[in-house]
Specification:
With about 180 residues, the chain is an alpha+beta fold. The protein has four helices and eleven strands. The protein starts with a helix and ends with a helix.
């Protein structure tokens, strides 16, 4: 039943995210995925697209390609950030960075939810996760219909700092259209 709900949630997201305008930009950070071959979290291809929806809202979409397909056959994951919720996202990122510094210095290991903020058609859950005494990750997971999808975007300290910078720029500028046809003739 949970699998059916997850697939329906993804279908609702895809159907509901009809876009008026999309613009790819440099990510400046990379999501992580666990590689069982190397027994380590490694960077995976990560892309950022700025979107203006049909309803006029600005969204920053982070696409990342984890290793292999998940149990639903999906091989690309998305996390979508709403422009109006950027202050909450950045506060959670600041808290993660603070906790990560203390946990790394003291050798603490724990998993703890940092907070939740509005996402596109649901909430984004920010969670501190320890992979070891020296490796701590930020997990950003999409939650809807009372459950989270169990495929969070994972970031290390550098990734969280990069996401914070990208969100700050997005909040300041929003989606600025680029005349590709005029620029590349």
């Amino acid at each position: 039943m949970r699998g059916v709900l997850a697939v329906l949630s993804v279908a609702v997201l895809v159907a509901g995210s009809a876009q008026a305008e999309k613009q790819k930009v440099t990510a400046g950070f990379a999501a992580l995925d666990y590689n069982s071959f190397s027994s380590d979290y490694v960077e995976v291809p990560t892309f950022v697209t700025l979107v203006t929806t049909r309803k006029g809202g600005d969204v920053m979409e982070v696409e990342y390609d984890p290793f292999g397909r998940d149990e639903y056959g999906i091989d690309t994951e998305f996390t979508r950030f709403r422009r109006e919720a950027v202050p909450e996202y950045r506060a959670f990122l600041a808290k993660f960075l603070q906790w990560e510094a203390v946990a790394r210095e003291d050798g603490d290991q724990f998993d703890k939810e940092i907070g939740r903020a509005a996402g596109v058609r649901g909430k984004l859950k920010f969670e501190f996760r320890s992979a070891s005494a020296s490796t701590h990750l930020l997990a950003v997971d999409f939650c809807t219909i009372g459950m989270c999808l169990d495929h969070p975007m994972l970031l290390n300290r550098q990734g969280a700092e990069g996401l914070d910078a990208a969100l700050a720029s997005f909040a300041e500028r929003g989606v600025q259209p680029v005349d590709i046809d005029g620029k590349y003739q």
